[in-house]
Amino acid sequence: MASASLLKSSPVLDKSDFVKGQPLLRQPAGAAAVHFQPISPSALTIRATSYAEELVKTAKTIASPGRGILAMDESNATCGKRLASIGLENTEANRQAYRTLLVSAPGLGQYISGAILFEETLYQSTVDGKKIVDLLVEQGIVPGIKTDKGLVPLAGSNNESWCQGLDGLASRSAAYYQQGARFAKWRTVVSIPNGPSALAVKEAAWGLARYAAISQDNGLVPIVEPEILLDGEHGIERTFEVAQKVWAEVFFYLAQNNVLFEGILLKPSMVTPGAESKVKATPEEVADYTLKLLKRRIPSAVPGIMFLSGGQSELEATLNLNAMNQAPNPWHVSFSYARALQNTCLKTWGGLPENVKAAQDALLLRAKSNSLAQLGKYTGEGESEEAKKELFVKGYSY
Ligand code: 13P
């Protein structure tokens, strides 16, 4: 049952106001030029998702001390690029072998609280015939699912993109819940060199908010991910400025869509200089800017901030996270890395059965390092050269 204290109330929106795109909730007194109708108390609605309590519990479980998310939801096309980098063909059997290796790493659940899967993996078994979802649950890891349908060009913008997937999302989400998923990811992107245009930011924020509301209605905790791409020569100040704008809009629309903040997780980019900037930032600078952004924009009702790695090296992503956890934060500040958890593991495996154990050890080492970073206790000793390699790929698509 939904807990009354967690339910949100919101004014019903007048459709004509909405179509005109008027700001609806916070009108300055005496703003006569703006069309605004006072909202009577009887027009208040309560949005009650029957999953409210479960959503809050799931989000808290994922945001538990010393743990973070393993993003292993590469689409088949992206997974193909990963496999090609170690000379393997992009077949279902190879994807299954790789994902089996990841989820069966012994003791992974000590450091990993959630795993984001691509649809194929959610319905897949390990090479030994065990349901991957069941194996995750046995490891104490919450299964998640990528529900967005990827990026396409945004007409009317400056070569920017928007994220598809809202059509049919409710029924897909319900089916994923039945299959064992308890959280969902939707990744949209904002490009700094291409703008970002006001249109692209608004589209990204609105899409994320609709997805979040639909996910919650179907029992899935949404991970809200407006990735601000690393591409560009800009400095850290510019990233900070864009990130403030993006998160302001995201939370405006999340609130308009009556999303339960206690039942979401965020997946932001860290605030860094562009990948092609001549000026690099130290972990302390990245932490200062990123925490300043979060404190300005993210309500403390949100349980967890799970960063993406975005092309940072494995080591950089861990050091930056560690720097952010040197003092207590209002939210759990942790990781939801794909490349920065998997890179050395994938290279160590190389597609050879005899390397599975060494590859799992490499994954566990990264997971443990990031677990320590979540607790602010990472020292950086004993890192391999592979872990120091930058993973940025210009124009990277997921
Ligand atoms: P990276 O950590 O490789 O940027 O991937 C994050 C992501 O979006 C997957 O969910």
Automatic annotation (TrEMBL):
PROSITE patterns: ALDOLASE_CLASS_I. Its EC number is 4.1.2.13. It catalyses: beta-D-fructose 1,6-bisphosphate = D-glyceraldehyde 3-phosphate + dihydroxyacetone phosphate. Keywords: Chloroplast, Glycolysis, Lyase, Plastid, Schiff base. InterPro entries: Aldolase_I_AS (IPR029768), Aldolase_TIM (IPR013785), FBA_I (IPR000741). SUPFAM superfamilies: Aldolase. It is an enzyme of class 4 (lyase). Pathway: Carbohydrate degradation; glycolysis; D-glyceraldehyde 3-phosphate and glycerone phosphate from D-glucose: step 4/4. GO terms for biological process: glycolytic process. It is found in: Plastid, Chloroplast. GO terms for molecular function: fructose-bisphosphate aldolase activity. GO terms for cellular component: chloroplast. CDD domains: FBP_aldolase_I_a. Belongs to the class I fructose-bisphosphate aldolase family. PANTHER family: FRUCTOSE-BISPHOSPHATE ALDOLASE. This is Fructose-bisphosphate aldolase. It comes from Penstemon smallii.
